[in-house]
Amino acid sequence: MLESLLTPGALEPNVSEIKRQTGLNHATVQSSLDFFKESGAVKGFSPDLDLEKFGFNLEVLTVFQADMSNKRIADKFFDSVKSDPHFIYASGVAGATNWNVLSRQLFRDVDAYLADIQGYYNRMPELYELIQDKAVFYARKPLYKKELYSRTAINLLKKEKNHLNK
Question: Quick one: how far is CA 55 from the chain centroid?
């Protein structure tokens, strides 16, 4: 059932509630929602799960320096990342250090994470060539702030609008 909540159209906004909150008429709310969806500005509506209630208590953030000169090894690794359900994302990163990849993963606990990483190295011994250096961080309680990306973007847009209207 949870997976079905991720299918397009499974969760739709409550037009009457939006109308009540904004004071806009039903047609305006509906046409605005249609515009946002059709333009791609809003990609969909999804559930906000309490991950701990499902036993996912560990978020792992890793920065590493990958030797991207060996494209075959890099491609093999990133192809495996794409199919690994633990990865929330993996992306290139630039900054004042040699780190060039950032990843964010979800696990039940540290033991599950360590077993998963060991499995990668067992399946792909060439990872020792690819990953030159890394730093691993375990996000844990207390969380001082955790916000959905969409909520953060909406808050920033509101702040910019208020700033422009002054």
Answer: 18
Spatial strand order of the sheet with 101-107 comes to: 87-92, 101-107, 58-66, 131-139
For residues 42 and 114, give the distance between their C-alpha atoms in angstroms, rounded to a whole number.
Answer: 36
Q: Are 110 and 136 in contact (CB under 8 A)?
A: no
Spacing of C-alpha 155 from chain mean position = 18
Residues 106, 108, 109: CA angle, nearest 5 degrees:
105
Q: Residue 94 carries which side chain, given as an amino acid letter? A: A
Q: Which of 80, 105, 78 is nearest to 92 (CA)?
A: 78
Q: Are 30 and 15 a contacting pair, CB within 8 Å?
A: yes
Q: Please report the pLDDT score of residue 112 as a whole number.
A: 97
pTM of the complete model: 0.83
Of 119, 122, 117, 112, the C-alpha closest to 134 is 117
DSSP assigned state of 143: P
How do the domains of the chain map onto residue ranges?
1-45, 51-139
Under CATH, which number does the domain 51-139 receive? 3.30.70.920
**Backbone φ, ψ for residue 7 (5° rounding):** -75, 145
pLDDT, one tens digit per residue, over 24-48 is: 999 999 999 999 989 999 988 888 8
